[in-house]
Amino acid sequence: MAKPAVLVTGGLGYIGSHACVALAEAGYRPVIVDNLGNAKASVLERIRELTQSDISFHRADVRERQALGALLARERVQAVLHFAGWKAVGESVEKPVMYYENNVGGTIALLAAMAEHGVRRLVFSSSATVYGEPERLPLTEDHPLRPVNPYAKNKLVIEHILADCAVADAGFHYAALRYFNPIGAHPSARLGEDPRGVPNNLLPYVAQVAVGRRPSLRVWGRDYATPDGTGVRDYIHVMDLAQGHVAALAYLERRARSITANLGTGRGYSVLEVVSAFERASGKSIPLEFHPRRAGDVAQSYADASFAARELGWRARLGLEAMCRDAWRWQSGNPEGYPD
User: Fold this and answer.
1) SS3 306
2) Domains identified in the chain, total number
3) What are the angstrom distances between the C-alpha of 89 and each of 24, 166, 200, 219, 231?
4) pTM value surpassing 0.85
5) For position 116, which CATH number holds?
6) What are the phi and psi torsion angles at 237 (to 5°)?
7) Three-class DSSP category at 202
8) Using one digit for the tens of pLDDT, what is the confidence trace for 205-243?
9) Which of 57, 221, 264, 302 has a CA 20 to 30 Å removed from the CA of 131?
10) Which of 99, 151, 179, 251 does the annotation list as catalytic?
11) Is 179 tagged catalytic?
12) Is residue 246, in this structure, part of any structural domain at all?
C-alpha cells in the first residue's frame, strides 16, 4: 500500500526538516517544496540519509499557485504541513509589506491550489506571538489575541483565513499550532538550526558563542520581575515539536475537525537558566554582556499545553538538558552550519 503523501512547505528549514523526518518515521511520504530563500540545499541529502528514503523535493515558491497545483496533482498529496514564511520579528517591522505579501499571500496561493485539487487537510505553523503581552499565565488558547508586530499579525491573519475557509467548506479541516520557543536539534547532529547572519533567537546565539563564532552573549534586560531578572520563555525541543505535527495530522484524519492548540512544555526558563544548562551540556563558559531591555519584549511567556495533551494525545517529553545537549552536539559537529 502506498504511503500517504504530505506536502511540506518550507521543508528544508529548521522545523520543517525535523518534521519531514518525523513524518517519514510515522509512515507518511514527505514531499518537500522550498524556494531556498532561508534554507540550504544540502539539508535535503541529510533528510534522505536519516529517513533512508529518496524524499521528493521541488524548488518552488508557495506564491506560485500554478506550480503548487501541478505538484499537488502529480504527487497525489493528501495533506499539507505549512512552514514556509519569513520569520524575523525585527525584519517584519522594517518590511511589513514584504511579510504580508510573502506570508499571507503565500498562504492564500497555497489554499487556492489546495481547493482546486481537493486537498482539504492543513497543519499550519502558527506562533505564540499571536497572544502579545500576557494578561495571565500560563497562556491558554482562549487568551486574548493582541499581536504587536507584523510577523505576529501575519500569523493571526492566516489563522482567520483558515477559519473562514473551514466555514466555507465543511470538508476542509486545519490545525493551527501556536509554537512557543523551539530549540535543540536532531539527536544525530545531522539536522539543526542554522540561522543566516546574527541569530535572532537565544539558543543559536549561545551555541555560536560556545563554538567560538561570537565573543559573548548579549542579554537584553536584567531587571524584569522574574527570579533572576532576565526574561522567561517556554522552550520546546524541536523533535517534540515535530511529533506535535504528526499528532495534529493524525487528529485531522481521525476527527475530521479543525483545532487550534499551543505547543509548549508548560514550563518557563530564564535566559540565565538556559545559559547555565548550555554550559553544563557543552563544558564551555558563556561570557555575558548585559544591555537594557528591548522594546516589545515581555517578562514572561509560557504555555498551558494541557489542551494539546487532551485533544492531540501529545505532550513534550524532552527537557532543557536534552535541548541543550542536542543543540551543542549539532553546533559542535557543524560549527559553520550546513555546507552551501
Assistant:
1) helix
2) 1
3) 31, 28, 8, 17, 17
4) yes
5) 3.40.50.720
6) -65, 135
7) helix
8) 999 999 999 999 999 999 999 999 999 999 999 999 999
9) 221
10) 151
11) no
12) yes
